[in-house]
Design a protein that fits this description.
alpha+beta
Length: about 220
């Protein structure tokens, strides 16, 4: 079974949100996550809300006090979703063009040797601009998995400087690139390192928002 994600994480700064809401093509992809009530998996709900002594309690985490702003999350419609709610169907159509807004923004692409498209490189440049403009960190995250095995995972952080964390599939290791310094990462993942930059500390690689059953609908910025 495959799973993939491509989205941007940052803090829910009201001024930033007003700026992004002004981009018509982006409005449908803005979500403010202030809590984890969107968890719908009973197994996960038990760990997070019902059983402090659960055998997997080490995976439990929270969200930053300011709340998360999630831009264009990848999401899936599941059996939890009301068949009369067409939100997921409309979002599925939106996802295929969710980064198109970047075409109208004039930025010099950030070029990295990570097999990224020009669209992705322009998106990174825009995040770099937003980081400087609003003085807060941004995390671009991309992951592709098959049968629980990672094929690709990248977290690119803009926080005054650019930090790149990625999974080196050939060597089965996570690596970190800051400036020109490349080194292996021990006992952490690209996701954990990326989210830590915005104050979200995952004790393990598990992230509740990445469960396919997570309910994004209540967290829409534009209703």
């Amino acid at each position: 079974m495959s799973w993939n994600a491509e989205q941007v994480y940052t803090l829910a700064n009201p001024k930033l949100m007003e700026c992004l809401k002004g981009i018509n093509e982006l409005q449908q992809g803005l979500f403010q996550v202030d809590d984890l009530r969107g968890i719908r998996s009973q197994w996960t709900r038990e760990i997070f809300f019902e059983n402090d002594n659960h055998e997997r309690k080490e995976i439990k985490h929270s969200v930053p006090q300011e709340g998360l702003l999630v831009i264009n999350p990848s999401m899936y419609r599941t059996s939890y979703d009301d068949k009369n709610n067409d939100f997921y169907e409309r979002y599925k159509e939106y996802e295929s063009t969710k980064w198109d807004f970047i075409k109208d923004i004039t930025v010099e692409p950030v070029v990295l040797s990570l097999n990224l498209t020009m669209e992705q490189c322009k998106l990174l440049a825009y995040l770099q601009y937003l980081n400087l403009e609003f003085n807060q960190p941004f995390v671009y995250y991309k992951c592709e998995m098959w049968g629980g095995q990672i094929d690709e995972e990248i977290a690119i952080v803009f926080d005054g400087e650019m930090k790149v964390y990625y999974f080196d599939e050939l060597n089965d290791h996570y690596k970190q690139l800051v400036g020109t310094e490349l080194k292996e990462v021990e006992e952490s993942t690209a996701l954990q390192l990326g989210l830590a930059s915005i104050g979200l500390h995952l004790p393990t690689h598990f992230f509740a928002l990445h469960e396919t059953s997570f309910d994004w609908y209540p967290y829409r910025v534009i209703h």
